[in-house]
Design goal:
alpha/beta; five-stranded mixed sheet; 3 helices; globular; single chain; 83 residues
């Protein structure tokens, strides 16, 4: 899906399927954009630093607790949009 359908709009239920578990890709949403974090080692098994789980909207955590800036997000593959 990544790269081919970046205009795809994920619902909350659809995004939850991309939790990085059991061979599923790992996606997170931040500010309405869905990013693919599957190939980033820090997201092993769909979890990152015991703070956030793939398949969720991570906007609040990203804005309040993440040490990453927007340059980090810009380096991630896009998977679609989140509404």
């Amino acid at each position: 899906m990544v790269g081919k359908h970046v205009n795809y709009v994920f619902s909350e239920d659809e995004l939850a399927n991309f939790d990085g578990k059991d061979g599923n890709p790992a996606y997170i949403a931040v500010d309405g954009t869905v990013y693919d974090v599957t190939n980033f080692g820090a997201w092993a098994d769909g979890e990152h630093q015991d703070m956030v789980t793939a398949g969720t909207d991570a906007t609040d955590l990203f804005e309040s607790e993440s040490p990453h800036n927007t340059e980090f997000l810009e380096a991630l593959p896009l998977a679609g949009r989140f509404e």
